[in-house]
UniProtKB/TrEMBL annotation:
Protein family membership: Belongs to the binding-protein-dependent transport system permease family.
Membrane topology: Multi-pass membrane protein
Keywords: Cell membrane, Membrane, Transmembrane, Transmembrane helix, Transport
PANTHER family: ABC TRANSPORTER PERMEASE PROTEIN, INNER MEMBRANE ABC TRANSPORTER PERMEASE PROTEIN YCJO
The protein, known as: Sugar ABC transporter permease
Keyword GTP-binding among record annotations: no
Domain of life of the native organism: Bacteria
Transmembrane residue ranges: 28-50, 92-115, 127-150, 170-187, 230-250, 287-310
Primary residence: membrane
Record localization: Cell membrane
Pfam families cross-referenced by the UniProt entry: BPD_transp_1 (PF00528)
């Protein structure tokens, strides 16, 4: 009897050892596969973030050995620079209006494309998603010609229709430049938000909508009392992602207005780039790093607030 028990124990140990060895082998393969990505992440994400903090304490041009320690001087200069706060304000204005316009419009379009009666929905999805995969700088250059003063497509159309008497400098006017940047930004990333909403709509349980229909709810009531509460947690995440992404706009503004007119469309990313790479004979990489750190903490603060709202929204939905 004892011999049989010992044999079973030995068999179990060998089986466990074999499973453990197989598992270690699988883990080793997994780590080997993620190793290139990990190396690239450390080299091009973590290392630059760490070094930006280091550079921010130096009056350094970005060339030659790191020298010229100035302590917190770059930070004090950043927070006292009115041009930084102008770019800061513009970045948040751009974010606010882009999210305000884009998120609800993307939801409406997703609802339309999710309708069972719509034919060729895949074609429409592709058309709306094309700007997302198009290079932003190329779009900016094209839009600069479209909204150009002379021979610009928009001006030509509006003058032909009799809406305008003379060309309008859409990108050179303080009244219209930011509006055009926002509208182009909405169009450029519209397809991605539409896909987010479409995925959310397709995950909703269909039996709830059938029950609402049986109870006599009209489409507006179904949207208000059934669909909207279910979409609220996912919608909060979409708003969070849209807001954080919109706070980093560089290539679109750089190619369309370069921050003009009179810095009216200047963004923090463009402000940092200007000091880091366009400082004439002496760029200020240290000062640009300090500005980046300040802006990074501002974005982190906004992300934490929005994340808290998302968590609360999701918690209320779960409790219901």
């Amino acid at each position: 009897m004892e011999a049989r028990v010992k044999a079973k124990k030995e068999t179990s140990k060998r089986a466990i050892g074999k499973i453990s060895k197989t598992r270690r082998k699988k883990l080793l393969y997994c780590y080997l596969f993620i190793l290139p990505q990990l190396i690239l992440f450390l080299a091009f994400t973590i290392y630059p973030i760490i070094m930006s903090y280091v550079y921010s304490f130096f009056e350094w041009s970005g060339y030659g050995p790191l020298k010229g320690f100035v302590g917190l001087h770059n930070y004090l200069e950043t927070i006292s620079d009115p041009f930084f706060w102008n770019a800061f304000k513009n970045s948040f204005v751009f974010m606010f209006f882009l999210v305000l316009i884009q998120v609800p419009l993307a939801l409406l379009m997703a609802m339309l494309l999710n309708a069972s009666w719509l034919k060729g929905a895949v074609v429409y999805r592709t058309i709306y998603f094309l700007p997302v995969v198009t290079t932003t700088a190329v779009i900016g250059v094209i839009m600069r010609f479209i909204f150009g003063v002379y021979k610009g497509l928009i001006n030509e159309i509006l003058i032909t229709l009799g809406v305008l008497d003379k060309p309008v400098d859409w990108l050179g006017s303080l009244d219209t430049a930011m509006m055009i940047i926002v509208l182009v930004g909405v169009w450029k990333t519209f397809g991605m938000k539409m896909i987010y909403w479409l995925a959310a709509l397709q995950s909703l349980p269909k039996d709830l909508f059938e029950a609402a229909k049986v109870d006599g709810a009209n489409p507006l009531q179904t949207f208000r009392y059934v669909m909207l509460p279910l979409l609220l947690p996912i919608g909060s995440v979409i708003v969070l992602l849209s807001a954080v992404n919109a706070l980093h706009v560089f290539d679109l503004v750089k190619s369309m207005t370069n921050g003009g007119p009179a810095y009216h469309t200047d963004m923090v990313d463009l402000y940092i780039y200007r000091y880091a790479f366009e400082g004439g004979s002496m760029p200020r990489a240290g000062f640009a790093s300090a500005a980046g750190v300040v802006y990074g903490f501002a974005i982190l603060f906004v992300s934490l607030i929005l994340g808290f709202i998302v968590k609360k929204t999701g918690g209320r939905q779960t409790s219901h």
